[in-house]
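Hallway conversation turned thread

IA: we were arguing at lunch whether anyone had actually written out Group 1 glycosyl transferase end to end. Turns out nobody had. So, for the record, here is the sequence (353 residues) and right after it the structure tokens. Reply here if something looks off.
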Amino acid sequence: MHIGLVVPDDLNQRSGGYRYDRKLVSYLESCGDDVTVCSLSDGEPALNQPFDVLLQDELCSPTLVDRNTALDKPAAIVALIHLLEGPVSKVLTDYDRDHHRRYLESVDAAICTSEFTRELVCDIVTEAIQTHVAPPAGRQPSLPPTLEDATTQARTGPLRLVFVGNVVPRKNVETLLDALAQVDQTIDWTLTIVGDTRAAPDYTCRIHERITTTGIADRLSFYGPVTDDVLESVLARSHVLAMPSHYESFGMVYLEAMEAGVVPIASAVGGASELVVDDTNGFVVDPTDTERITSIVTDLARDRERLVSLVLNGLQTADAHPSWETTFAKLRTFLTEVSDGVESPPSTGSEQP
């Protein structure tokens, strides 16, 4: 197939969505497909070409919503949706809903990274649209921790928490900080924040002010953006990934944490519950519930055998999760069917092979 992939910016950006896109390009090319990456940051790339499929990152929708109707050369146009702005349909403004609807009805099909997002897409459109769920895989380190090493790690040292993501309002760092500030002072814990603090400067300033006023600055450290190797090393020495975001479409980092023997505290808003089972391999929390986050951190710091059980369950979940190859093989089949005009029912790439 000849596939065009439209992305908002340089494909080498560090976000999870761009990493997904890079892996997808690599997989399609390994199958012999010709992939043309069209970045909107390069001006106005030529999109009206005889592609078998023109795959569009939905983040490009503000630019593409009025252009798609004029594209008559691609055999099919497919939206790739990592994240819909406005997490739950009931809180989308009328303008946002109308924009998303207009864009989604300008494409032939949509690929979503979670069932949650697929359901949201189907709720927004007024006409049926072909959909496929293709969840991301993790980093799949070449040497995951052994059960013995993971158990030893869980029992050792102060409770080490990590936050991984850009410091932006959607990631809800303030609620995490407020929850940690309520943990009994006799409990030994630390928090490492890994991510870009320049993405939302005003918000970052407010976060630093909150750290100061809550008196927990001596327990925190900031890493900023890091390479994959550094992130893996940070996860390898952590116990808990604390990410009670206001919204995560899937939350690739929750899976990456489980792979490393780290227990995720995940958001109940979005697709994380498709992976994280509350109080079994992690926790799924209301992102406004500081009391529960405080209680979870307290309990895990005091009961390391419970932490061990969660870690081992998480390793099993990560091991059973479909690989990138499995997910992308099903995604590619879906693209072929859409290109060929084959109608298919709503499908998912998350079944086990």
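OS: looked through it. The domain at 2-137+322-348 is CATH 3.40.50.2000 (Rossmann fold).
IA: good, adding that to the notes. The two ends are 24 Å apart (CA to CA).
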